Each structure stands twice: as C-alpha cells, then as structure tokens.
Amino acid sequence: MKLKAALYIRVSTEEQVENHSIPSQKERIEAFCKSQDWEIYDYFIDDGFSGKNLDRPAMQKLLSEAGEKKFDIVLIYRLDRFSRRALDVLRVVEEVFEPNQIFLKSATEPFDTSTIAGRMMLTMLVGFAQFERESIAERVKTNMLHKAAHGEWCGANQAPFGYKNMDKQLVIVQEEAAIVKEIFSMYASGNGLRTIAKNLNERGCRTRKGYMWSHTVIRNILVNPQYVGNMIWNRTERKGTKTIKRDKSEWIISKGNHDPIVDKKTFDAVQSILESRGKMSMREASSDYVLSGLVYCGQCGYKYRGWYKKAKKPGRKVRYYRCGGYNYYGISCKTPSIQTHELEEYVLQELEKLEQNESALWQAYKHFQERDLGKKETLTVALKETKQTLSSIGTRKQKWFDAFEQGALEANDLKERINQLNNEREKCEKRLVELEASMANIEAKEISIGHALESIKNVRQRWNSASVQEQKLLVRSIINKITIHSRENIEIEFYF
C-alpha cells in the first residue's frame, strides 16, 4: 500500500518571488512525491501568511487531520515553509506527528523524522531557520532605529494625510495640509470630533482614498506628532497576532527632516483639550448633564451631581443638579438643588456677557498671560540650569576617570563618585521632564484659552447647534469651576 503524503505549501506576501511562489513549491514537492512513489493525500496551502507562528488556516487544518491519522507523511518544500520558530516545529513533531506515526519530510533538505539522524538534522536546520529570521528582523529593526533617530520616514509608502512620500522623505501636499490645519483649528475652537467630520463630509471633502471622514480618523490626525515635524517610532510591537503598545521610555522621538504643518503651540493646546476630555469620569463623559464635574457646593465642597425625578405628566422627567454631599453622604447641607436648564442658562448668559464686553475679555486674557509670564521666566531659568548641570556631569565623570588612570584615585573611590554622578543625572533628567511639562502646560493653556475666547463669539448660536459633548468641551475650555452658595449666589471661576 502506498504511503499517503499531505503536501504543505506556504508563502508570505513579501515572498511572492520565483523560488518561493506557490506554483514553484507545488511543482517541486509533487515531483519529489512522485519519485518516492507516494500517494498525494491533499494540498494544504497558506497563501500570504507569515511563518512566525502556526496561526494559519491550512496549518490548523493539517494539524487537525494529522490527529485523525489521515496521512503518513507531511511533505514540505523547505523547513522554513513549515515554520521559522524552532519550538513550533519540534513541538508539532513531538506532540502531533510522532504519536500518530506521521513523518515530516523536506523535498530540498536532508532530514527525515523517521530516523534518529534525521531528527537530529531537523533540530539543527530549524535552529538555523529561526536564527536567520531573528537576524533579518534585528537588521531591519536596527536600520529603522537608525532612520528614526535621524528623522527619516520609516513607514510604508503611504505617508500621513497632508504629506507624500518622496524618496523616504515627507513632503507637504498643500491641499491636504490646508484640511489638516482646519481640523486642528476647529478642535481647538471647541468643535467636537464628530462635528468636524460632519462639517468636512457636508462640504464634500474626502480622505485621500475617497472615504468619508469619521471621528476616529479625525482623532488620529489630532494626536499625530508628525504634523509638528517630529518622528516617533517603536511605539508598538507584535506579539503573536496582537499589537502591544510599548512603554513610553522605549519610544524613539526625534526631530524629523520634514516641514511641520501645525505649529507646536496649537498642537500642545489640542493635546491638552484631548487630555482634559479623557480625564472626565465615565459618568461625566457619558451623561447628558453639560456641567457635570464642574459644579461644587459652596457649603460642604462636594460636587453637584446630575439627577432626575419623574414629573407629574407621564413619561416626563425633571432634571436638576443636586449636592452630592447631601445626597450621597447625608451631610446636612442647605445649598439648593437647581434644575439643569436654569443653571445652564445662567452659565450661558455669563458667557454672553463676556462676549458683549470683548475689550474687557481680552484685557483679562492679557492679564492671565502676564500673570503666567513670571512662572515662565522662572521655568526658563530652571530649565537652563538643569540642562547645564546635565551637561557638566559628563565632564565631571571624565575628570574622575582621568584621575583614576593617573593613579590619583582608587577604584572604590571612582565607583562611589560615578554612582553619585549617575544618581545626580537621574534626578536632573526627571527634573528636566517635569520642568518641560510645566512649561508646555502653561503654553498650551494660553493658546487653549485664546481659542476658547474666540469660540464664544456668537456663543448662543454655537450653543444651540452644538451636541451635549461639544457644549461640555466649550465650558471646560474656559470655565474651571462653578460654586453654588445659594440660588442667588453662583460663582463662576474662569481660567483667566
């Protein structure tokens, strides 16, 4: 009786070349099968799948039928067609093939798992296959790291919207760049992601591929640092079939060689708004109470919460803001509950007053900038001193190494002083990050408030046409806190 051979063929997308193509593999292993006088049981073909793991449709079908002993031999063109991971190959041979008396055979390599020598050769070959794969991956990664560190484009041929890829360099596409600028400007002015997408779609604007805009695409543009001239690589890694986000300490961030589309202040302001929106509690973000999270009790200090009670008319509800200290914790608090439409109308009227007194408004904003000027000057001095200290640490290290080489310093003393300098450098680097973050926050808040002040022009019209989420963004961009002392005494604390 002839032995039955299952013919396994695999090719990845990037391997569609003559020696690895499906027809080429099929021709070679069919000829080998004929030379051995084996009967072909079936073909198992994975077209466009990587050899990094066994998560492939045809491979899984092959393993399933192997467990049912439907064939005697698995024939492959070359070992790396089966898998590029040594553990995968050896595990399948030991746990699936051998218990079912199935042998793995290559048409081009000298191993046969039916013999001891063949199994030893298999172990060697599969080890070399994995070494080759990891070496290639390491070379690619090293090359990408080098390019990213020097500001070169490391992506595929598809450049971000607003750019085109010319010889691995990002070049601005003016028509697309104008849309990118508009997206940033609209969001910084208080418009939500869906409103921006709707606006672009209604005007007939489309993505590069001709699709309609979605809030997800808008957000991806807003968080992309390439629009301020930076390159970021190594943010994610593949683990099996999953993409895992790396820790920020592993990211590669460098100044790109391309021109920015958006200025850094606008970009930072947008990140600040996105972050503040993300910091809303789930209740605040998902509720339809516009002022949720902003209103505080002037007596007990707890937040006001959005509540409702059934109205006398069936199917209707009365919605209002109520002190959380009283409602949750039974605190004897006498500040009143206020219906939502009353408090929101009061806030809207206060915003209209700001709009009507434009000169005083911008004077207040100027005062805000002047108030923060002293903070910025202090931060600038601290940043300069910290950078100078960091720069001097390298010089001081070299000084101690020179002293050691000249015999003026013992090894233990050198080790102690180098450790001290390393600790000092670590503290300085941490301090530098904190100072830069503080400076960025001040600058982002300045431009964010500037955009917010622009956005309260025609504020009632904007308010009436905005969604609940957009109304939340508007009030949060300009109002820091609302304190209720009584129904007649409501205090609004603006950012300026």
Question: Would you tell me the structural class of the helices and strands?
Answer: alpha/beta
What is the alpha-carbon Rg in Å?
A: 33 Å
Q: Strand share of the residues?
A: 15-25%
Assembly state here? single chain
Count of helices?
A: 16
Q: Any low-confidence stretches, pLDDT <50, length ≥5?
A: 280-286
The side-by-side strand order for the widest beta sheet comes to: 2-1-3-4
| Through-space gap between termini | 91 Å
Query: What is the percent of helical residues?
Result: 40-55%
The biggest beta sheet is recorded as:
4 strands, parallel
Shape category: extended
Number of strands: 16
Task: Provide a concise account of the structure shown.
This protein has helices spanning 22-35, 57-66, 79-82, 86-97, 116-149, 174-188, 193-202, 215-222, 264-278, 282-286, 324-329, 340-356, 358-405, 411-455, 459-465, 468-478; strands at 4-11, 39-47, 73-76, 103-106, 163-166, 169-172, 230-233, 236-239, 242-245, 252-255, 295-297, 304-310, 317-323, 338-339, 479-484, 490-494.
